[in-house]
Amino acid sequence: MFKARRLLFFYVETPLHVGAGRASANVDLPIQRERVTQYPMVQASSLKGALRAEFCQKHGIKDNSPEVEAVFGKAGGTGDNWAGAVSAGDARILLFPVRSLAGVFAWVTSLHALESFRRAADLVGQPISWTLPQGMPDTNTAWVGSKPQVSAQGKVVLEEFSFNAQPKAEVDAIAKWLAEHALPQGAAFQYWRDTLPARLCILHEDAFRDFCLYGTEVQTHIRIDPDKKTVAEGALWTAESLPADSLLYAPLMAMDVRNGKDSKNADAVLKEFDFLQDGHIQLGGDETTGQGWVAVKVYGG
Amino acid sequence: MAETISKQRLLEQERASHAYDAVVKAKGKKDKELKSLARSAPASIQSNGLGQTLAFWKAKNEEHHLALYHALSGWLKKQLHIDENRDLLEWIATTADSLQYRQATAEALAYLNWYKRFAEAELKE
C-alpha cells in the first residue's frame, strides 16, 4: 500500500494533445481515451514521464542522476534496478468546456464523472464533502446553479444542442468546492473561480459522453514544400486535442524510496512535488507550438 | 449477451456494406475529389456540426458533394427511421430534437469512418 497520497488537478491552459497514435477514427491523430467510457484521459505513463522531466528541470539535474532515479525508479539488469517511489495514476476528466450560446462557454460534467472523482478522492484518503442532487438529469436537461450565466429563457444551448435548464442548489455547492480546491489559486484564475458556479452544468451521462467525444478540438495541419510553397504531397492531417479550460485530476502516491541506499520516506518523497503547486507543467505533444500547458493544483497532504 | 454482441457486429457490418456499395456506385466520376472530400468529412462534422456540413455539401451541388450527401443521408434515414422521401437536412432543421440530432451525429461519424476507408481504397487519385 502507498503510504502518502494526494490528488493533482490539471487545468488545461493550451490545447492538450496526448496522442494515441494513428487510428481509424474521425481524426488522423486522436487523443488518449478510456477504453470503456471513451472519456479523454492522460495515461499514467505519459503523466509520470512529464513529472520526471519537470523534476529534472526544477533541480537542474540529469535524467539519470541518483536523485531522480531514487524517486522515479531505475531500469536495468537484475540487481541493479528498482521501482520508483512515486506513483502517478491516470489523469481523468472532471470538467469539459463546451461552446454555449449564453455565457460563451459552459463547463459540463455528469453524475458518473463526479462520482468517479469522488472514488478517486476516497482512494487517496481525501473524502469529498459535497453531495449530488437526487435522481438524474434526463437526456434533454441540464442541472445548473442558482445564478446560471449559461442559460437564457430557461434553455442552455451547448454547441448546437439545446437543454432545459434546471437550477439545483447542490450545483452551487459543488462549483464552490471545485473553485476552492481544484482550480489554481493564483490571481490569474480569480475570474475563472468566480464564474465556475454560473457556468457549471451537470448533464445526462450520455450527453456528457457525446460532448467528450465530439466536442474536442480538431486542428488541421499541413506541411509546406519549401521550394514550391504549396502543400507537400499527402501532407495534410488532422489532430485532436483536449480544449483549453478542461479540468483533469490524477492521484499521486508514494512509497519509501526502494533503492536500498537512501532512507527517504514516502512523505518526504511526496514533499518533493510541492513545487508543482500553482505552477505549470507541459504534457503531451507539440510543445514547440505552445500546446499542452497545464496549471497544476495539489490537493491534500 | 451473445445476441447483443452479434447484433452490434451486424450493425458495423451493415454500415460497412452500405458504405462500400455507395463508394462503388460513385466510382468513375470525380474520384479524386470524392476521395479528398470523404477524408475531410468526419473532421468537418466534428468542427462545424452535422447540419452545417450537410448544408455545405448541398450548396456546393457538385457530383462528389452530392454523392456523399446521398450516401450519408440514405444511411441515416434508414437508421433513424426517417421517412425515405424526406430530406435529411429538412428533418434536422425542423423535426429532430437535441437527442436525435446527437444520435444522428454519432451515427454519421461511425458511418463515415467506413466510407472514408473504402474511398481511400477504391478511388483513384
UniProtKB/TrEMBL annotation, chain A:
Protein's UniProt name: CRISPR type III-associated protein domain-containing protein
Top-level taxon in the UniProt lineage: Bacteria
Stored InterPro entries: CRISPR-assoc_RAMP_Cmr4, RAMP_III_fam
Keyword Oxidoreductase in annotation: no
A Pfam family that the UniProt record links to this protein: RAMPs
Positions of the CRISPR type III-associated protein domain: 10-294
GO biological process: defense response to virus
UniProt keyword list: Antiviral defense
Automatic annotation (TrEMBL), chain B:
Parts of the chain that traverse the membrane: none
Record keyword Cell inner membrane present: no
Record has Cytoplasm as a keyword: yes
Alphabetical GO biological process terms: defense response to virus
SUPFAM superfamilies associated with the record: AF1862-like
GO cellular component, one term: cytoplasm
Keywords of the record: Antiviral defense, Cytoplasm
Pfam families per record: Cas_Cmr5
Entry's localization field: Cytoplasm
Family: Belongs to the CRISPR system Cmr5 family.
Identification of the protein by name: CRISPR type III-B/RAMP module-associated protein Cmr5
Species per Swiss-Prot/TrEMBL record: Anaerolinea thermophila (strain DSM 14523 / JCM 11388 / NBRC 100420 / UNI-1)
Organism classification: Bacteria, Bacillati, Chloroflexota, Anaerolineae, Anaerolineales
